[in-house]
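agent> fetching stored inputs for the beta-D-glucopyranose docking request
agent> found them:
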Amino acid sequence: MKNLTPTMIPGLLLLAIAVVLVQCKSEKKPPSSAAFFEVRKTTYGTTPDGQSVDQYTLVNGTGMEVTVITYGGIITRWTAPDKDGNYDNVVLGFDNLGQYVAKTPYFGAIIGRYGNRIAKGQFSLAGKTYQLETNNGPNHLHGGVKGFDKVVWTASPQQTDTTASLVLTYLSKDGEGGYPGNLSCTVTYTLTATDALKVTYQASTDKETIVNLTQHSYFNLSGNFKKTILDHELMLAADNYLPVDTTLIPTGTITPVAGTPFDFTTAKAIGRDIDIADDQLTKGKGYDHCWVLNPADGLRTVASVVHPATGRQLEIITDEPGLQFYCGNFLNGTLPMPGGGTYGYRTGFCLETQHYPDSPNQPAFPSVILRPGEQYTTTTIFQFSVAK
Ligand code: BGC
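agent> prediction call returned; pasting tokens
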């Protein structure tokens, strides 16, 4: 520093400011990458009907942070590492509760009682016909007008030496949304030291009912939500998928993906075949279908997504039989993005593990019936890493 002259001081100041700005832009690993777990809590807002909503952030000390609000159990922010060790937010979300309440395409939410569609909102159980709300054209979608994405869950944080968890509970009363039975639900988000988020869903009922819970995060692994997700490379361990009618209800046939744009058995860019002239791509306005996951006992890896430019990789591990892959075809530049701008067409994708759509009306599909005395339990793990 002995050659420092007064004329150099403004330049040095600018350099110092630039260094600070660069450090703030990405969330770098903390100096020690030894795992330490923390659950941070703050108040988030109040719903129009006066319920207070809290925000919890699960922190694993290597850089991953998962922020969840008790409204809808929504994951509002989720950081993941790129090839340089930078942790950035990779899920679409809003700035505040008002925006989630006003209009959301289920960003980050827990979906229930029934993830996906039920034709005409009707089904029969134990000789009785039930009519659910029709909130998606002629069909019922994602639990109806006020599904599990729009209720306030009770949260309880839990911490061990190797995990940070948030246990969310909700009692859906008999008749809520038209569904039978008091359904007692627990959804647990558990963050591990290895950048995995394990989601376990549990439910029990006092009357025969149907249930199909899932998680509706929209991912964009680039961390830049102005970009589409068409360059992400997707692999789906599914030799078959479920073709749909024009209202996105499965026709009931299980169709091989081989030789169709729906073949993701070997990784390919989401955008590679999306514009091929294909009746099913036309009906879905792109990919918006349920893949029939290759069967296996228990948990298995069913999907993997890599964003080549950043190296970010997401693997989905589940015990569910199906996965709805939806690539943001209905995002249309009208929803506000934090920091300014709006979410454009195909700037996020969802990988929703679940039972098949319209199962209550499709006897050949795996059953979604839950009876008193039974325990509904399913698990999905979102595993982040850097692609090799
Ligand atoms: C459905 C889409 C729907 C989206 C948001 C997805 O699960 O498959 O059709 O537009 O959720 O509502």
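agent> quick read of the result: Residues 15-32 have pLDDT under 50 and may be disordered.
agent> awaiting further instructions
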